[in-house]
Write a structure and sequence with these properties.
Radius of gyration: 36 Å
Number of helices: 40
Structural class: mainly alpha
Largest sheet: 5 strands, mixed
Strand content: under 5%
Shape: elongated
Number of strands: 12
Length: 927
């Protein structure tokens, strides 16, 4: 019984006792089966032995081998009778509820694969006797490559399906000829003959029927194109003539060659040739419009032929489910190779984890797909006809309802209509036209096109909330008159003009319309030649609104999005503003994506950048929405950096040809903001590299780890087509720029004990293990604690700390003119961030030998609290400085978000904070 109904099935006709009782549902339903068993009684014992288990490839191959046809005429009945066996087997099992959908489609696909390969090899060998082997440029024999398209390619073949083929041969050339010296022909002629005879072997209608109807219309140039083409010709066709609907068709393309037909690795070469045509390197949102147009054509044809009851092409039918899966493949498959799979249900299953579709929606589509495909098969079982239309006669309706497990036809229709309605809803959600224009769209369009008189335009702009109306109008005019806009391809300009009015509206809805419009126009100008991004913004107006909000809220966000427009895709994720970041999941996704492109260094480097940029952008969006404190933003950015550095070490070690062990005994140590977990959006990474010479005693260890360190630094800091990962600074390593790239733990300890300057020990207070071998990390931690807890002459320490601070003030603090203007540098000026950091570093270095809790890498605010609890500084002075430090970081963060290179504010606005810091400074460094 079918799970879609709890009703009892309608009474079946009287049972035929000649066959097993379990066959009765199939016999009642399928006139084809009844006629077949009547004509071919020898099938009955064969089926009686096999029907209770699925058929395997070995079963089918054995049946053909036993027949051993002598020539092509003898081959035809062998292949057709094999199909009869398979069909009878499937009808019995399926209607006895013994075969799930996957078994049915896989068995039909196996039948196609095995019969195609057997016939292909058979005909090939026959032609070779006449013409010799067709040779490639290296003198190797070639085989015709048979590409299965559509459901055949996706291993989803239905029980009365056509097979869609494309025939490709590897190389031009000639055949070897016969031993007598004759028979030499061009490879094209050989394979053309082979293709025609293969079609006849499978598709000719004989007394035993057909194996499959063969459809060749998907080949290059369709019916007007040659039957076969070379691999070079196919590639040239893709580049010069390939149409959008052909990309859709080629998603499921599969080279079917196996056994003797699979030679010289030509199958994978063909697959690789088609991949760039189908799957673009960028996010191809233009595919939505193309597939929407294709579906509209299908619907017009359905309406013209009154095919509302067509379970494949009708509304809410199988084709709409396939379109949903395939549009995500076309848009994203080039960047997410996991989506380059063929089966529809497997593609759908990948969508929820990528945030592309809700799990509930995928469950509904998958359930509907199963129901519709099983219904499709039952329609075809009746007479072995390629039909997808529901019966119109009462007897046929009762039969089909009974086969699906329903009491009557209305009960079946109720469930069917529910599935089709849900499929249509999900289809419309994916393919719906962009939202209707707003009530003021005519006005907005006129403003964008400059079609209003000056006074009228100014009035309209003012009414929208723009303050500097004349400036905004001039910016719009300059944009339209600019060379970039004027030189856009027609399709891009059309998309730009569709976006323009909405852009004005989106800018007007932000707190700073004039600034937002200016930044948005600069952004559009930068991406104007990238049609896919314009298509995204046109298709998803909510993304355009988010762009306006982000760009209007932060000049840094505007620059970041302009540099990395691929991040527009993140705006479509409904989880964008989810505060909880699952870093373990991110690690898994990053590792999976890197594993998929293993060995491709350029792609691996780009992927690290793309996934890092995407996470930074998500944090930025959440930050501008006010969902995070500055401390939480820094925690997330630091965690993200740690993951990226760890993956970079792993990848670089795997690529070192001179590596001498499975895992490196090597660690990356972070200093500064990375070490102190206070990273900002554009912070560089202060890092050094260490290895453990005791754990790795190989003579070449230092040289190998130096190469690893150099490569890690290059991977982190190189500019690639995907942008930059991090700026790095290695100057904090022992002996700075003149020091070795990597140090052993022993030499690092020796340097810190006997050669390091006080400022290097100050830097060590914020250092921590970031990535690599955890044992090396623990070794570093031990050295760090040992150095920080060295007893020091506090008077001398104070003198050196003050001297270093004065050097920094002389080099970087505000000059007299800046001070006179009442400006204050939050970071560099006395009373600012660096003063707080120096206070804490002095307290750690001066007192950690007595108070080991000061060596914890807990952050400056926590360390101030510890120092107060220990009585090293007055609590009354510590708490205001903690608040000042928080405020300074918040102000500094806000300044950087809006592109201010120096964190300057009005001194008067932070006078209380300056006084608090200076009071603690005087307390700590008095005398």
């Amino acid at each position: 019984m079918n799970n879609d109904s709890n009703n009892n099935a309608a009474p079946a006709p009287a049972a035929d006792t000649t066959f097993p009782a379990a066959w009765q549902p199939a016999l009642d339903h399928s006139a084809y089966l009844r006629q077949l068993l009547s004509c071919r009684g020898e099938l009955v014992p064969i089926l009686a032995e096999s029907w209770q288990r699925p058929l395997t490839a070995a079963d089918l191959e054995e049946w053909i081998a036993q027949a051993a046809p002598a020539d092509e005429e003898a081959l035809k009945p062998v292949l057709r009778r094999l199909r009869q066996r398979v069909m009878a087997h499937l009808i019995i099992r399926d209607l006895a509820a013994a075969a799930p959908l996957q078994e049915v489609v896989e068995t039909m696909t196996l039948l196609a694969d095995i019969t195609t390969n057997f016939a292909l090899d058979f005909v090939h060998r026959s032609l070779v006797q006449q013409y010799g082997e067709p040779l490639d440029s290296q003198g190797r024999p070639q085989r015709l490559l048979v590409v299965g398209m559509g459901k055949l390619g996706g291993r989803e073949l239905n029980v009365s399906s056509d097979v869609d083929y494309i025939f490709v041969y590897p190389e031009e050339g000639q055949t070897a000829g016969r031993a007598d010296g004759g028979g030499q022909v061009d490879n094209y002629d050989f394979f053309h003959r082979l293709g025609k005879r293969l079609i006849i072997a499978l598709g000719d209608l004989t007394a035993d029927g057909q194996v499959f109807r063969v459809d060749m219309r998907l080949r290059p140039n369709g019916d007007s194109g040659p039957l076969v083409c070379s691999l070079d010709a196919l590639e040239n066709y893709f580049i010069t003539q390939g149409r959008e609907w052909e990309r859709y068709a080629w998603i499921k393309a599969r080279v079917m060659n196996a056994g003797a037909n699979d030679v010289n690795n030509w199958g994978p070469v063909l697959s690789q040739t088609g991949r760039p045509f189908v799957f673009r390197k960028y996010l191809d949102f233009g595919a939505i419009n193309a597939m929407r147009d294709l579906h509209a054509q299908i619907r017009r044809e359905v309406a013209r032929k009154d095919m509302a009851n067509h379970v494949k092409l009708g509304p809410g039918g199988i084709r709409e489910i396939e379109f949903i899966a395939q549009v995500f493949q076309l848009i994203r498959g080039g960047r997410d190779t996991a989506l380059q799979i063929r089966p529809t249900l497997q593609v759908l299953a990948l969508l929820p984890e990528r945030g592309l579709m809700a799990q509930e929606a995928v469950d509904e589509l998958s359930t509907a797909y199963d129901f519709l495909r099983r219904l499709e098969h039952r329609l075809q079982y009746v007479a072995d006809q390629q039909t997808h239309s529901l019966p119109e006669d009462a007897e046929g309706q009762a039969r089909i309802a009974r086969s699906m497990g329903f009491a009557d036809y209305p009960a079946l229709l109720a469930v069917l209509d529910g599935h089709r309605q849900r499929v249509s809803l999900h289809f419309e959600a994916v393919f719906a036209e962009p939202e209707a224009p707003s009530s003021q769209s005519e006005t907005l369009t006129a403003l964008w096109q400059g079609a209003l008189e000056c006074d009228g335009a100014q009035e309209k702009f003012a009414g929208l909330g723009f303050a500097d109306v004349q400036d905004s109008l001039e910016r719009l005019q300059a944009f339209r008159d600019g060379a970039r806009y004027q030189q856009l391809p027609a399709s891009n300009r059309e998309r730009m003009d569709a976006l323009g009015p909405r852009l004005i509206e989106a800018a007007a809805a932000t707190p700073t319309p004039d600034l937002t419009l200016s930044r948005c126009l600069a952004f559009l100008e930068a991406i104007g030649r990238r049609g896919a991004y314009l298509a995204l913004l046109q298709q998803y107006p909510q993304a355009l609104k988010k762009v306006a909000e982000l760009i209007g809220g932060s000049s840094w966000a505007a620059e970041y999005l302009t540099r990395h427009p691929i991040l527009l895709d993140e705006l479509l994720d409904p989880r964008l503003l989810e505060v909880a970041t699952d870093w373990q999941r991110f690690r898994r996704e990053l590792r999976r994506a890197l594993d998929e492109c293993a060995g491709d260094t350029e792609r691996e480097m780009d992927l690290l950048r793309e996934m890092h940029h995407a996470q930074v952008f998500r944090l930025l969006a959440q930050d501008l929405a006010g969902l995070h404190s500055i401390e939480k933003i820094s925690d997330h950015l630091t965690e993200l950096a740690d993951i990226m550095v760890a993956e970079t070490v792993r990848l670089c070690w795997g690529k070192l040809k001179t590596r001498h062990r499975e895992e490196p005994v090597f660690a990356v140590i972070g200093y500064g903001k990375l070490g102190g977990k206070e990273l900002g959006y554009a912070s560089d990474l202060d890092i050094i590299f260490l290895f453990d010479e005791k754990k790795d005693t190989a003579q070449e260890a230092e040289e190998v780890y130096a190469r690893l360190a150099q490569r890690v630094n290059t991977w982190l800091s190189s500019q690639t087509p995907a942008g930059l990962l991090f700026e790095t600074d290695l100057r904090l390593r022992p002996n700075g720029d003149s020091g070795l790239m990597v140090s052993s733990l022993a030499s690092f300890r020796e340097y810190q004990l006997h050669s390091a300057w006080v400022w290097e020990h100050q830097a060590l207070t914020r250092a921590r293990f970031v990535a690599g071998d955890t044992d090396v990390g623990r070794g570093f931690d031990a050295i760090r604690e040992e150095i920080l807890r060295q007893p020091r002459d506090r008077a001398k320490l104070k003198e050196e700390v003050l001297a270093m601070r004065q050097k920094m003030i002389d080099a970087n603090a505000s000059d007299a003119e800046t001070v006179a203007r009442g400006e204050f540098d939050i970071k560099q000026d006395p009373g600012g961030i660096i003063d707080v950091e120096f206070i804490i570093q002095y307290l750690v270095l001066g007192h950690a030998h007595e108070h080991p809790e000061l060596t914890g890498n807990l952050g400056n605010i926590a360390l101030l609290g510890i120092a107060a609890r220990l009585g090293l500084i007055p609590t009354a002075l510590a708490e205001p400085v903690q608040n000042a430090y928080r405020d300074y970081r918040r102000l500094q963060h806000a300044k950087r978000l809006n592109g201010s290179p120096k964190s300057r504010v009005a001194r008067e606005s932070v006078a209380e904070r300056i006084a608090a810091v200076r009071a603690l400074w005087e307390e700590v460094f008095k005398g």
